[in-house]
Amino acid sequence: MSTPLIAYKILTGDQLTELEREGRFAGSPADLADGYIHLSTEVQLTGTLDKHYAGQSALQIAAVDLGSFGDALKWEAARGGDLFPHLYAPLPLETVIAYGPLERDSDGRPRLPVAG
Q1: Cβ–Cβ < 8 Å for 34, 101
Q2: What is the pLDDT of residues 32-71, one digit of tens each?
Q3: Distances from the Cα of 23 to the Cα of 20, 46, 48, 88, 91, angstroms
């Protein structure tokens, strides 16, 4: 199985504002505690949202191009032994190809942001 070229980061409104204002995102409290920015593939996104963001509203989602991170991006086993993309560097705004409010479809899956 090939690794996806795009992953997703769930952000609070304040975190998205930081990304836009600073041109980079240093990480959420969980990211900073673990030493890397947690990302999820499209397949992993619903599980991440349900486990780590349950009950939170006004969330944002960013689609991240994984092609420019080099050795800073590592695929590591996490929930259920699945390999998750972990970014061992701040997330630069220029690698975000689309972002917007996180909404769910009628099946409860997150709607992915679409680039304009």
Answers
A1: no
A2: 999 999 999 999 999 999 999 988 889 999 999 999 899 9
A3: 5, 27, 25, 17, 9
